[in-house]
Amino acid sequence: MTSSTRKQALRIFRAALRAADPFEAVLRHARLDGQTLVAGRHRYRLPDFGNIYVVGAGKAGAHMARAVERLLGRRIRGGLINVKYGHGVPLRRIQLNECGHPVPDRNGESGAQRIAEIASAAQSRDLVICLISGGASALLPLPAPPVTLKEKQQTTRLLLDCGADIHEINCIRKHISGIKGGQLARLAYPATVLALILSDVIGDDLDVIGSGPTVPDRSTFRDAQGIFEKYGIWEKAPAGVRQRLTSSVAETPKPGDRIFERVQNLIVGSNRLAVDAAVREARALGFHTLVLSTFLEGEAREVARVHAAIAREIRAAGRPLRTPACVLSGGETTVTIRGTGLGGRNQEFALAAALDIAGLEDVVILSGGTDGTDGPTDAAGAIADGSTLSRAKDAGLDAAAFLANNDSYHFFERLGDLIKTGPTGTNVADVQVMLVR
């Protein structure tokens, strides 16, 4: 029975991936009505614009750009999108620039510089379409003086290792950048800007998604400095970063700034929509279904233990659902690096859960990233059940030791329980599927 339940968990996860398809997401929210582009509640009469440029960054950028080309075709004058290595697709009018993620690299910096130049060259009668999706913060690196790319790379690694969440990481990114935190909108002003956004951020906070290049920034330089202090890493921050955050340079543009009067920010896809699709699939398979939350945050291994406790409650008392039960959640957990192993937050989630559901029959827990790459690995996540620990023991694997070393990838690789989808072309954070028969 566990084998069929595992297959059902994978089927539910794939339903979430289909709902997050970026090409379809753009076309659901933007369409042509004769000579007018309709995006959300806004209408853009195309003959009124001199040039149309398309810029942006993110793991889903290539497929979003393909959708915009489908809509506008030869009307597009040109543009450039920074995407992660291996996430490109053939395009006709818009150039793709593959670069590093989660740690930015030179390709990303040169692409971001070109994007800034395109935005700056736009005139008042031009339309700049900006495509933003998960990963844009790392894929749009334009260090603000005196910060160097190397110092930005060091800062990214420092923040990832200390367990800072995406809101905190992006607050700092905005204040050491020349393009994030509303600054792309400032560069494009007074052109009209339409930002189509695929959200990978809990709560869909516009100024956090991709570090909000076209959105007013509510955070400050002092907030950014406070995050370093919170984690006790201020003294470890590169000198250029500390100098930037304590300098008297102008703040990022804030709510009410006139540069945003001709800017529309439109969310075309999100984790919530992906989880909703997973709900429909689970119910079609006959499961009593509950969405625990699409605001999942916190240390991956601790959040996993909560899920395992819910599975035990369902088995013991039939609450909060009677069996067959499907509990879904979405969001983005974090991992505090303690060891030297290889893995990502989804694989670590599954490994921690495996420890707590050991011996429970017909309980399956899957955790996967919708982008297809969990942390620095080629896996989207992993799947575990009540027999995972016994199978690991037979293979000579100590699950607790692998978890302590943050080595979830090699643990699940040995068991054949990694989830490998390849790059999906989208990114709306993570989805967890827990089935109890």
N- to C-terminal separation? 9 Å
Shape: globular
What is the C-alpha radius of gyration, as a whole number of Å? 22 Å
CATH fold naming of the largest domain: Rossmann fold
Q: List the domain count as a whole number.
A: 2
CATH architectural grouping of the largest domain: 3-Layer(aba) Sandwich
Helix content: 25-40%
Overall strand count = 15
Query: Looking across the biggest beta sheet, what order are the strands in?
Result: 6-5-4-7-8-9
Can I get a quick summary?
The protein has 437 residues and is of the alpha/beta class. Helix content is 39%, strand content 20%.
Short key terms for the protein model shown above:
single chain, 437 residues, alpha/beta, glycerate kinase, domain 1, Rossmann fold, 20% strand
Molecular structure report:
The protein has two domains: 2-13 and 272-436, glycerate kinase, domain 1, CATH 3.40.1480.10; 22-270, Rossmann fold. The protein has 16 helices and 15 strands. The protein has helices at 2-19, 22-29, 61-72, 106-121, 136-139, 149-162, 166-175, 183-188, 221-230, 239-245, 271-284, 300-317, 345-356, 388-394, 399-404, 408-415, and strands at 30-33, 36-39, 42-45, 52-57, 76-84, 95-99, 127-132, 192-198, 263-269, 288-296, 325-331, 363-369, 381-385, 418-419, 430-436. A six-stranded parallel β-sheet has the order 6-5-4-7-8-9, sandwiched between helices. Strands 10-11-15-12-13-14 form a six-stranded mixed β-sheet, sandwiched between helices. Helix 3 links the parallel strand 4 (52-57) and strand 5. Helix 2 (22-29) crosses helix 3. The longest helix is centred in the first third of the chain and has 18 residues, at 2-19. The mean pLDDT is 95.
